[in-house]
Each structure stands twice: as structure tokens, then as C-alpha cells.
Amino acid sequence: MADTRVIALVTNPTSGKGKGARLSALAEMQLREAGLVVCPMQGRDADEALDLAHQAVADGVEALVVVGGDGMVNVGLQAVATTGTPLGIIPAGTGNDVARYVDISLKDVAAAADIVIRGRTRTLDLARCGGRYFATVMAAGFDAVANERANTMTWPRGQMRYNLATLAELRTFEPRPYTLDLDGETLRLHAMLVAIGNGPSYGGGLRITEGAKMDDGLLDVVIIKPITKLDLIRTYPKLFSGTHTTHPQYEHHLARTVTVAAPGIVGYADGERFGPLPITIESVPGALTVLS
Fold it and tell me: Which GO terms of the molecular function aspect are on file (predicted)?
């Protein structure tokens, strides 16, 4: 029976400065040795990777396995969401937050491939915005502006690029006026940051929506109301431990559907650009089956 398991392996070859292609080859070898039939696929860009992923799911593969970071996972989500086809992850990116959520090793490709071989699954919620799904957190504030800047930078690589973009934006960033609709309840306020979490972290372990559960059918909405730039710099390291939740300007809400509007901000989720605000996000319970 084992030799009838057909796995699609979709790789972003540019993930982690070419790490994606290297780890994909190692994972493929291990999956084949375990008796799986592996169909390797490599898109030249995200659009082609998505076409390949959709085709693989339509062809009835037992699992769609993506090799890359959260951006590549996001491609996989669009193909498997609500289909019941499990998503497997071989982490090879910068942030790898979705892999963190389901306890997939970020350093050990053999351990990540072993999870695919074992075939155990979990069912998780996804968030949907404009017909696109995401698994992590929608950045819709200061963090999104920093992300937009980071995407224009070619140096340095990885997490440090986001840290530098954050510092650069801090010089001029001012609180923005927000209008939020949370399941029909309207909030109007000024804020530095609004984040809408399906899961608890983004950006490589920044636990902005600390406490978010991925199977409760709810989105976690975090608001950081106006604080000084010095205070923001002091609070930033606390995001890695989730201890920012005690800050007096921190606010937390739960909702099934969220609309967020503010001038001059482009929403980002799973490291991908979703588009300018206003945007509406809804929780889609049980939309993702993931190998975990």
C-alpha cells in the first residue's frame, strides 16, 4: 500500500538564497526511500507554482508538500484550502512561522520529511481576504509599512532586513486613524499597529497575536494604540516572547469577520502583499489539513 502514496513536491528554488532547491533534493530522496511516489514541481514564479499546485490537487495527490518559507506555504494554501488534501511543509525560508505552528523542525530537513512520511494530520482554521487565504497574521499598521519598505531593499538578507526597515520607518511614522468593524461593532481610534491573527506569530517568531488559537473559528485582533517611538523600540523585543500584552496601550479583540480601514497602508499576510486598506478578513474554520 505504501508505494501507492503519491506526493507532489513543490519547490521555491530561490527560498533562503537557494536553500529551497538544496533541501528539496534531500527531502525528495528521503521520501522516495520511504516508498512514496514523488512528483517534483518547480515554478519559475509564485503564479506558476500556484498553477502546478492546483493541478496536483486536482489530480488527486495524497499530499501537497511545499519547500520554502511562509510565502511558499501561502501558495500551497490556495491550492489545498477546504479540499481536505493535506499540506506538508519542508521549511526553507526566512520566517517559517506556519512550520513553527505545527512543530516542524526549522533546522532538520530529515525530521521535516519524516512528518510527511508518517502522514499524521491536524485540521486548522485559515483566514480569507478577497478570496485569498492566509495562515499567519495580517499586518495592517506600522509593521505593514515596514514590510513594504523591506520589500524594496536588496540588503541585508533575512530577518535583519525587516529590523532595518522597521528602524528606518520609525523616524517618520505617526499613528494613523483607523476604522474597524468587528462582527458589526465599529471602533474608531488612532493606532500605531493593527494586526489580525489566524495564528499567534509572524515575521519569524514575532508573537504579535499571542494566545491566538488556530482551531477556534475566531480571528485575534491586536491594536497597539499611540506610543512614543522610544517606547515602541523598547516594546519590540517583547514581541519575541509575547510579553508585550501587558503594555497599557495594547488592546485585544476576538471576531469572526474583521474590516480594517486606514489611509496609506497596504496589508501583508504570510509575508505576501494582499493590497491596500480597507480590507475584510473572515475566519474559515477547519479549512486546512496539515501534516504535523
Answer: ATP binding; ATP-dependent diacylglycerol kinase activity; metal ion binding
